[in-house]
Structures are given as structure tokens and as C-alpha cells.
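Incident log, structure service

09:12 report received: a user says their structure output differs between two submissions of the same chain.
09:20 pulled the input from the user's history:
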Amino acid sequence: MRVLIVWASRHGATTEVAETVAEELMNAGMEVTLSEASAVTSIAEYDGLVLGSAVYMTQWVDDMRRFATTFHDELQNKNLWAFSVGLSGVPKGNVQDPVRVGPVLLKINPREHKTFAGRLRPRELSLRERSIARLGGAVEGDFRDWDEIRAWARSVAEDMRSLEPGG
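09:34 re-ran on a clean worker, output below:
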């Protein structure tokens, strides 16, 4: 299966998650292409897509929202999985509001959507972002659970295999 992993990230944490998902899919025998959302010009040649976005102020970042709008019609005919990376609910252990990007997800209708805890490094943020993080009570640190991310990617690979002819 030819898979396109599309991501949108502001400070690199989601990029690293996308790279880890790609690694697991390649280990499972998938032909994987990685691309930032803003760089994608076509999705026609792919059998499946994995979309991943950072979440700020309860929404996927602009580049991913634009991607979902631009390719809306084509996405309806693709096998699609999605993930979000954000700090909602951290450090309690669970991301509290997994449907906070609901409007975009309802439009693209992925087979599955997973929310992962993210990373916060205040020194990488703009003054506005730092202010919002402080007001929201965000805690500095890297809360990504790499075992959880890898396990999810392996489950996506299994789902992809089940969709292949003879799978």
C-alpha cells in the first residue's frame, strides 16, 4: 500500500510524531512518503493517508485545515487515519477533549483519529503563544508517549493490510 503521511507542526513535536508513524509503517512493509501539509500538490497516487496536526486553541493548525479543505473531495475516496498532538489534559495522563478538532474531522471522516499528548518548550513560543499557554495553565515538558505512538502506528498498519486485496 502506498501511504502519504501529511503533517502540520509549528515547533517540531508533531513532525517527530509523523516521522515515528512513518518508521513503523515502513517497518510493516508500507511504501511511505512524508510531506508537510503546505507542500502537498496531489494525493491521487496514494492508497491511504495519515494526517497529523498540532492543536492550538482547540484547532488543527492553519496548514492542515487548508489541506483538508483543498483535498476534501479526494479525501472522501481514500482510506484515511488521523492524529492530533496537543497539551489538553496534560499532565493528567489523558488528553481530555479528543474531539476538539471535530469540525475538520467530520469533513474528512477518518477511519480512526487518535490524540497524543504533546510537548511544550516555552522558549520556542512567540510571546502570544507563551501568554496563551500560561493563561491555560500549560505545563512545560515533553509528554509524548512514544510507546503509545508506535503502538497506534502498528495498529494503523494492520488496518491498512486488512484493506488490501486478500488482506
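09:41 both user submissions now match this output. Likely a transient worker issue. Closing.
09:42 reviewer note: The radius of gyration is 16 Å. The first helix runs from residue 13 to 27.
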